[in-house]
Design goal:
heterodimer, A: mainly alpha, MetI-like fold, two-stranded antiparallel sheet, 12 helices, globular, B: mainly alpha
């Protein structure tokens, strides 16, 4: 049992190491700075610029978090502080469904609903023409996808605040909302930050749904209505042909390695914060 | 004095409306898929494998993908349970509450939980190339097992941590060894196992990026572990990228089938969880 446990822990190290070894060839030829600052992506000519992909990933992740954070905060405050238990039961069921929907279905929903909405209703107000397969579409779909994760983390964190804190605030004449604002949100701020970072790292790695709605154009997007090409989509789209072009495999592995490193750092740090908070209130 | 009550009203209104928005998203997603997917749905889709011209609008169905997905989910769930139950048991019975190893293990599994499935897929693919394996059912099962182990362990662990210490002491007092207490522990964490299985099955069946390069895609039903296997999410994805409108309609029906399977699993899982909770102290 000890062996299985340790082996399972070592899996983290193993994945990181494996991906790093595979991306060594490209490090030997180009410096890391060259790779992430160039925006020319022509594997056939040996040009590997990751900037458009990194940029695309950051754009859609930011949009997703900005869009879903207010909804997630308000809903979880509502669930923990205000709602009756039958309401809570219904909302949790809805969240379970939302969390259970496979990402490819989110992608289908994106192409059926979000993309046409952007290209027909929203984009004409701002730009001349947009296909709808845009940064914004990716952000909206991702935002809905991370909602259940954010809300469940927030609810967990808010319920960890002891009853007495609320009672003290309410007995001083504060309204419920003032209690939320000045006591609960302030007390759990590190936890909220950690939860957001977790959601960001989830959004970072989401592949199939964003692949379906982002347009996949390897150029740095200049507005919300441009197409983009996030890192995971790059890996997924090019895996089949990578063995025929030199350095291609190594470049894609580097993409996977970058994802791994970012997610690893984000996850480890935010989990550590969440553990601390939970044990402090225990 | 008045102001804070107005603020309270506004805040409450905002909260209720954001809860309603969450509901609206769920309803909209299911409604949209149902609207487009239901008209093209028929018995042929569920009961037949694709014929030669299927992706140009010919006859056939997606039975290959449905069975492929079910094989992978079944295989990886069994494998995942076999690996994760001993780990959970070790973490909670053998290790002390403040053990460093337990802390690191929990952190490691939480990190693994967050790693995107495309990274698992890429990692597993390099290993498969290294071993000289081709895309196959076995490879798909392996990568999905890796993907769901952290979910299994962390959600069972949540329940196992609540285990009363007195209960363990009682079994030791009756002369049980640490290994023998597993029978008591298992019964106690049974609802946790059910919930964990439910979560993992949901994630396993919906995952596309991980199986893309490891399980491959095929039009036939795999008969051994070394043959490639189709999966439902990939089937939706490939059909949707076809320029043919009929084939796209089928993609929507396939998505509907996928949602249906996931919902059935989650509802039946809830019932099973309730049933298993009866042994709980």
């Amino acid at each position: 049992m000890f062996t299985i446990t340790v082996a399972a822990i070592l899996l983290v190290v193993l994945i990181g190491l494996g991906l790093y070894i595979k991306s060594v060839p490209i490090f030997n030829q180009y410096s890391i700075w060259q790779l992430i600052s160039s925006s020319e992506w022509k594997p056939g000519q040996g040009k590997f610029g990751f900037l458009p992909f990194i940029g695309g990933t950051i754009w859609i992740t930011l949009i997703a978090v900005v869009l879903s954070l207010p909804f997630a905060l308000l809903t979880s405050l509502f669930l923990t502080e205000y709602s009756k238990s039958w309401v809570r039961k219904w909302v949790f069921t809805a969240l379970d469904i939302l969390a259970g929907i496979p990402s490819v279905v989110y992608g289908v929903w994106g192409t059926l609903f979000v993309v046409p909405w952007i290209s027909e209703k929203l984009a004409p107000n701002f730009v001349e023409y947009s296909t709808g397969y845009t940064v914004l579409a990716g952000g909206i779909v991702l935002g809905v996808m991370i909602l259940p994760l954010l809300i469940s983390l927030f609810v967990e964190i808010f319920s960890a605040v002891p009853r007495e804190f609320r009672d003290a605030s309410l007995s001083l004449g504060a309204t419920k909302w003032q209690t939320c604002k000045h006591v609960i949100l302030r007390k759990t701020f590190p936890g909220i930050l950690a939860a957001v970072i977790l959601a960001v790292s989830r959004a970072f790695g989401e592949t199939i749904a964003v692949l379906m709605v982002c347009g996949n154009l390897p150029e740095l997007p200049h507005s919300l209505f441009d197409s983009c090409y996030p890192l995971p989509a790059l890996i997924a789209n090019n895996y089949g042909e990578m063995l025929s072009v030199p350095m291609y495999e190594s470049a894609l592995m580097l993409a996977a390695f970058l994802l791994f490193i970012v997610v690893f750092i984000f996850n480890a740090s935010s989990r550590a914060v969440i553990y601390r908070i939970e044990s402090r209130f225990k | 004095m008045k102001l804070k009550f107005i603020e309270e009203k506004i805040a409450k209104l905002l909260m209720i409306s954001s809860a309603i928005v969450v509901f609206a998203f769920v309803a909209n997603i299911i409604y949209t898929i149902f609207l487009r997917g239901f008209p093209a749905l028929n018995w042929e889709m569920i009961s037949q494998i694709p014929t030669g011209g299927y992706y140009n609008g010919g006859g056939g169905g997606i039975l290959n993908a449905i069975t492929g997905s079910l094989y992978i989910v079944l295989g990886s769930t069994l494998l995942g349970l076999l690996i994760s139950i001993p780990v959970v048991f070790y973490l909670n019975v053998y290790l002390k509450k403040d053990s460093k190893l337990a802390y690191i293990a929990r952190l490691a599994f939480d990190v693994l939980f967050g790693i995107p499935s495309i990274v698992y897929g890429a990692f597993a693919f390099t290993i498969m190339i290294y071993l000289g394996m081709h895309t196959s059912l076995g490879g798909g099962i392996l990568v999905i097992t890796l993907l769901i182990i952290p979910i299994f362990i962390r959600s069972m662990d949540e329940v196992a941590q609540q285990l009363p210490k007195d209960l363990l002491d009682a079994t030791y007092a009756l002369g049980a060894t640490k290994l023998e207490t597993i029978r008591v522990v298992l019964r106690q964490i049974a609802p946790g196992i059910a919930t964990a299985t439910l979560l993992s099955v949901g994630r396993a069946i919906g995952d596309a990026a991980g199986v893309m390069f490891t399980a491959g895609f095929t039009d036939s039903i795999p008969t051994s572990f070394s043959q490639p296997a189709a999966t439902l999410p990939l089937s939706v994805f490939f059909q949707l990228s076809s320029p043919n409108a009929d084939v796209q309609d089928r993609a929507y029906s396939a998505a509907l089938i996928l949602i249906f399977i996931v919902l059935v699993i989650s509802i039946s899982g809830r019932l099973i969880t309730n049933y298993f909770s009866k042994h709980k102290i």
